[in-house]
């Protein structure tokens, strides 16, 4: 939630980072961000527009073409990224507070996101000097070699649910292969991205290699996708905006990575460890208040286990603590009034469609919670897979329970969605689990523990959940282009 402001500041102002300097917007305008736990103003950041994106792109292009980065010895690039990782960890307390106040997530979750951001830079720092090409045998008179090369300027647009984590997820592999980056954080949560830009300079990244431009998506974000010096785009966000980004990238004929929405399924069989199931549902509903694109918001439960699974989930959710992120509860607020209204609208729709809310179903309205954007964890039963709440991404602490009787029926329901980001399977039968994992239309499949893995495990979707892969070695293929050189001997 943001609003343009030209009045004298009543909260802290944070400049954006362009060409190694902290600068305001060319227009002199500022955006106000709000604390979702209270709805009160939190900070002001520059309202960057096309001229500011132009400054950042030119700076990134010049820095990329200089010998200080793309032609720097790979191990030296790696050392700079490793220093950035250490600086993030050294600054973890301040960054976690920034992330918590900005996004509303509990403090321990904010701290975990900082640790993950640091881990991305640590992981990719170790790969900088290990990017190898290949030798291709041709004939007695010729040989050929391949090499991974950078694109140049990479535009990175990240959402508000995990601002620092996702900024690092894209920037680290892009920088590893020698690109420069212009980062556009979400207008709701820009503070840790600005801090990341400052720490990158302290770590020894040359000025202009990592620029941070704050602003609105339809202004700064669109200008970034359209800029002629930007050679690749990484976008994480909604399907609607991702479609617009892809169309613009197609007009410019530049590659784009899209990590979009999800309506992921957890498939529960009677032989599953139901305590683990309940714990996984708890994580899905409380991590970032359910505002996670890969959250398992469809719970497909075998009819033989249906009543027991529902009872355990209800009992587990009854223990959820809720409050402002700085109190470090289990559940924090949604990001904004807009998102609050969206989630409450879907909860109302669920009742109208005939689903039954067995727990939750309303906004928290007691005491201090009434000031923020807090929604009760809500579990719907008697859900048909044709209902809107079972098909559309709600992006809040809402889960739909859908019964099934056979494996084929479970697979049909799980795949009956335009999304394909992630899925989970809970069973002690490993043959059943691996067969289902093979047939599920999802980019990541978890067996007996949801959202396992780490920075090493490639992440991305099928169908309308996007294309391309972040994380792991696979990300390097998307932030580099392959050159083949053929030599006559």
UniProtKB/TrEMBL annotation:
The keyword Thylakoid does not apply. It comes from the Bacteria. The keyword Oxidoreductase applies. The active site is at residue 259. Keywords: Oxidoreductase. Residues 27-484 form the Aldehyde dehydrogenase domain. Belongs to the aldehyde dehydrogenase family. This is Aldehyde dehydrogenase family protein. The lineage of its organism: Bacteria, Bacillati, Actinomycetota, Actinomycetes, Streptosporangiales.
